[in-house]
Design goal:
The structure holds two protein chains of two kinds.
Chain A: H1 10-32, H2 39-44, H3 51-62, H4 65-78, H5 84-97, H6 100-110, H7 115-123, H8 126-158, H9 165-213, H10 217-227, H11 237-253, H12 258-266, H13 270-280, H14 283-286, H15 288-301, H16 313-324, H17 326-367, H18 373-396, H19 402-413, H20 417-421, H21 431-450, E1 455-456, E2 459-460, H22 461-479, E3 485-486
Antiparallel strand pairs in A: 1-2
Helix pairs in contact in A: 1-9, 1-17, 3-9, 3-12, 3-13, 3-17, 4-8, 4-15, 4-17, 5-11, 7-8, 8-9, 8-17, 8-18, 8-19, 9-15, 9-17, 9-18, 10-15, 16-17, 17-18, 19-22, 21-22
Chain B: E1 3-4, E2 12-14, H1 20-33, E3 46-47, E4 50-51, H2 52-75, E5 77-78, H3 91-100
Antiparallel strand pairs in B: 2-5, 3-4
Classes of the chains: A mainly alpha, B mainly alpha.
């Protein structure tokens, strides 16, 4: 059997190149449709997103390179235990129900642009807003970094190593930042419409082609039962604790991703937002489930891969498909386009959020309070280029698997959760209590990780930190209730 | 100064957190989805090519998605939900008010 390595011919590479360059064209169209030179127009597309655009941009942003490459690699390594990925990706939508109905109302009333706007308005504390913003920017930098690394791996894979991953990272990052700075959120959302559609198509093709490589799913599972029985059997109780931990980690953490919150702000109507979220609840079944099946099939078809190399299993499976027939070859071209779409649509949204938070919550709030909307928009664009440059430099020089990067990001991000989940409901929750809870949660989460205890009884260190954070918020609100100003 | 948003939520006719049965539904479906009740090492017969415990978990996820769709449409009713936002209104003001309370 072939080893699954592959490289596209000139025709396929030109087609993918045109597809990528067309993203810049869409970015230019987004620029042409701008209505003002304001932050709301640049970062929230003038709050004009209807159901179709909102759904596809949520979908393309939520399902990333981690889903295609990282999750396939993880299911290759641990088998059906990774069914938890379907559950935790669903839990993000359940997480929205805990705060979105209220946040949308407040965001419309005060015309929020960033998550920091909400924290500043609700708690009235520059210190708390700054710390939460720094944590969110850190988490998003980590997230973008994972996407950039996956971009490099994808380009190296499709060119069979003729183009090194560092050049792939640089080229795709430049395309991404160009269309983003052209039209901001409008360009990002419109490219997400294309990328989300291609992503759905790519996963559909994977479902039909990949299990067949292993003789069908039944045959794959039967073979795994003989060769690696632990990969198909029910997990232990401690692993079930990890499932619960993942549900909390992602259900809380990914729901308060700044780019997700900004999409809530950008919806044209609550009805459109509700419909988008209702459909999103089903998307793990069309996306993460397929990644799980691909990883399990890869274990049978391409045995012997280990460590970071397992993140390449999907690319190598595609290599096998394209060697079968001409039709298979061109279907793989679509799959790879979908993979690049997944990576870029997630990275561009994260980058836009980083830029908005730096501009609004750090530059305007602390450095230049009197700056004009035009100046802020200009600073935001410069900020995008600077952050991309720094992240590309880091991405080229680090070695970690995609899923581990994902976990470390959430350990930090979820300490911001009480600001939203409790702040919208507990009138007497004060900024000092939230700040104390956040610092203690961080100290516990990061302290355990540094001390070599990334999990306690199967629970992630960040989730243990979040539990401490919640306890402090509850006790603090009972003992030291805040005095509030009526809205 | 911190802001009390309570008055803004009067237009929210229904929200999921007010209905206990919504969260009982989630609790039951999550309890089925997490495979804590299977003996460690159990696979079971294959259902559509999947081990029994995986098939049960996936069925529960379908149930969770249907439940969420129901909750979104029945228990999240905002009085102004069909109204489009007044695009651009107050945007410039917002940039100032965002930092005004500091």
């Amino acid at each position: 059997m072939s080893d699954g390595s592959f490289g596209f011919g000139p025709g396929a590479l030109i087609l993918i190149g045109l597809y990528l360059v067309s993203m810049i064209g869409i970015g230019w169209l987004g620029r042409m449709r701008r209505e003002s030179n304001s932050l709301a127009d640049f970062y929230l597309a003038g709050r004009s997103m209807g159901f179709a655009v909102l759904f596809l941009t949520l979908y393309a942003t939520q399902y990333s390179g981690n889903t295609m490459f990282g999750y396939t690699g993880k299911s290759y390594r641990i088998g059906f235990e990774w069914t938890v990925s379907i559950l935790f990706m669903f839990s993000i939508i359940a997480g929205y129900l805990l705060f979105a109905p209220r946040l949308v109302i407040v965001a419309r009333r005060f015309n929020f642009i960033t998550p920091g706007d909400y924290i500043r308005q609700r708690f009235g504390s520059p210190r708390l807003t700054l710390l939460a913003t720094i944590l969110m920017i850190y988490a998003l930098c980590n997230y973008t970094l994972a996407q950039l690394k996956a971009m490099g791996a994808a380009v190296e894979g499709i060119t069979d190593g003729r183009i090194g991953s560092e050049y792939g990272i640089i080229a795709l990052a430049v395309i991404m930042v160009v269309y983003e700075t052209l039209g901001g959120m409008r360009s990002v959302a419109w490219t997400d419409v294309i990328q989300g559609t291609v992503l759905l198509l790519g996963f559909g093709i994977l479902l039909f082609l990949v299990p067949a490589l292993g003789g069908g799913l039944t045959n794959v599972v039967e073979q795994l039962s003989v060769q690696q029985p632990q990969m198909v059997t029910a997990p232990s109780l401690e692993t079930c604790n990890t499932w619960i931990s993942f549900i909390v980690l992602l259900g809380c953490g990914a729901a308060i991703y700044p780019q997700a919150i900004q999409r809530l702000y950008a919806s044209r109507s609550v009805r459109g937002l509700k419909s988008s979220l209702a459909v999103m609840a089903f998307m793990p079944l069309t996306t993460t489930l397929i990644a799980l099946v691909c990883g399990a099939t890869g274990r049978i078809v391409l045995p012997g891969m280990e460590g970071i190399a397992t993140d390449q299993v999907l690319a190598r499976l595609c290599g096998l498909i394209m060697q079968d027939s001409a039709a298979g070859y061109w279907l793989v071209v679509v799959i790879i386009a979908a993979a690049l779409a997944a990576l870029m649509s997630t990275a561009d949204s994260a980058l836009l959020s980083i830029s908005s938070m730096f501009t609004r919550d750090i530059y305007q709030a602390h450095l230049r309070p009197d700056s004009s909307e035009e100046e802020l928009t200009r600073v935001g664009k410069i900020c995008s280029w600077v952050f991309v440059f720094l992240l590309v430099v880091v991405a080229i020089g680090t070695e970690k698997t995609l899923v581990r990067l994902l976990e470390l990001k959430f350990e930090v991000l979820i300490q911001v959760v009480p600001c939203f989940f409790l702040g919208l409901y507990w009138r007497h929750l004060s900024s000092n209590i939230v700040l104390t809870g956040m610092l203690v949660g961080l100290a516990v989460g990061l302290g355990l990780t540094v001390a070599g205890q990334p999990k306690v009884w199967g629970f992630h260190a960040g989730v243990v930190g979040l539990a401490c954070n919640f306890v402090i918020c509850a006790l603090g609100t009972a003992w030291f209730p805040a005095n509030l100003e009526k809205s | 100064m911190a802001t009390d948003f309570t008055d803004l939520f009067h237009g929210l006719e229904r929200e999921p957190r007010r209905f206990a049965w919504v969260w009982w539904g989630y609790l039951i479906l999550y309890a089925i989805a997490i495979p804590w009740y299977w003996p460690a090492g159990y696979r079971g017969t294959l259902i559509l090519g999947l081990p029994t415990w995986v098939a049960v978990t996936l069925t529960a996820v379908v149930g969770l998605a249907l439940w969420t769709s129901l909750v979104i449409h029945r228990c999240w009713i905002d009085g102004s939900e069909s109204a489009d936002i007044d695009v651009g209104a107050g945007t410039a003001v917002a940039a100032r008010t965002g930092g005004a309370d500091e």
